[in-house]
Amino acid sequence: MSTSFKNVTPTGPGGTATLLIVLSFTGFLLLTQSLFVVPSGQVAVVTTLGKVSGGSRRAGLNFKVPFVQSVFPFDIKTQVQPEKFETLTKDLQVIRATATVKYSVKPNEAGRIFATIASRNSDVYQKIVQPSLLKALKSVFSQYELETIATEFNVISERVADTVAEELNSFDYVDVKSLDLTGLEIAEEYRAAIEQKQIAGQLLLRAKTEVEIAEQEALRYETLNKGLNDQVLFKLFLDKWDGSTQVVPGLPGTNGGTPPVIVGGNNR
């Protein structure tokens, strides 16, 4: 007598429950992998198998293909970055200062930044802003001598800001909000020489001004002296006369007339 066995797949409430749990977990996993949130002040670059796909995703809830697409966030808020630099002037003097640049990534350019130059948000300054900033600083300051830089630092700072903005705008990755240059440092001996030259210039200007004033005064007195004839003196006397002095008026005539004669004060 032989006995035969058959394979039997277990069915019933327990097996169905297990299947439902597996399906629910799988669905939940797919859902969490499909949805992502972009915070305010950021955009996201989505790649499909490593290649940038579509435009920048804006703040809010977004969708991606699970396990196939990846998300890379980029800040679009204004960033403030101080940069200490050292460069040479036109007369080959070393200066040091701090350039504080304010910039922001253009939202629509995040995908191009990721594809061409910076795959991480933290690389934007080092690979985009910093090279253009240092290039502009060296380019502008090399055109001026140390004395000009020390005396016209604010004007030169504005030119540096314009040059940085122009340089970065040519790539069209970021917007430059402002650039401030502070803490200019030069060698003490050169600073003292510049101050002495400035003082000497001020003294020279003061001396020239005093000479001009003296020349103007001399010219004024010369002109006044030429015009002081009897008629003018008579008019000036009448303008100042207080009525208490006895005067024998002598009206000017064609030949000079008779000058006024002061007799004396009133005795009251």
Summarize the structure.
Helices cover 45% and strands 25% of the residues. With 268 residues, it is an alpha+beta fold.
What does this structure look like?
The chain is α+β, with helices and mostly antiparallel strands. The chain has helices spanning 13-34, 110-116, 123-141, 146-151, 153-169, 188-226, 230-240; strands at residues 35-38, 42-48, 51-52, 60-63, 69-75, 79-88, 94-105, 174-185, 245-248, 261-265. Helices cover 45% and strands 25% of the residues. Strand 2 (42-48) and strand 3 (51-52) form a beta hairpin. Helix 3 (123-141) packs across helix 5. The chain is elongated and about 140 Å long.
Question: Keyphrases for this structure?
Answer:
transmembrane, 45% helix, alpha+beta, Tetrahydropterin Synthase, Chain A, 268 residues, 3-stranded antiparallel β-sheet, elongated
Main sheet overview: 3 strands, antiparallel
Run of helices and strands: HEEEEEEEHHHHEHHEE
CATH class of one domain: Alpha Beta
Which strand order does the major sheet show? 3-2-5
pLDDT averaged over residues: 81
Q: Please state the CA-atom Rg, rounded to the nearest Å.
A: 44 Å
CATH topology of one domain: Tetrahydropterin Synthase, Chain A
CATH superfamily of one domain: Band 7 domain
Instruction: Please provide the count of β strands.
Output: 10
Describe the global form: elongated
Helix content: 40-55%
Provide the β-strand percentage band.
25-35%
Structural class: alpha+beta
Number of helices: 7
CATH architecture descriptor text of one domain: 2-Layer Sandwich
**Low confidence ranges:** none
| Terminal-residue CA separation | 175 Å
Protein name: Band 7 protein
InterPro entries: Band_7, Band_7/SPFH_dom_sf, Prohibitin
Pfam families: Band_7
Keywords: Coiled coil, Membrane, Transmembrane, Transmembrane helix
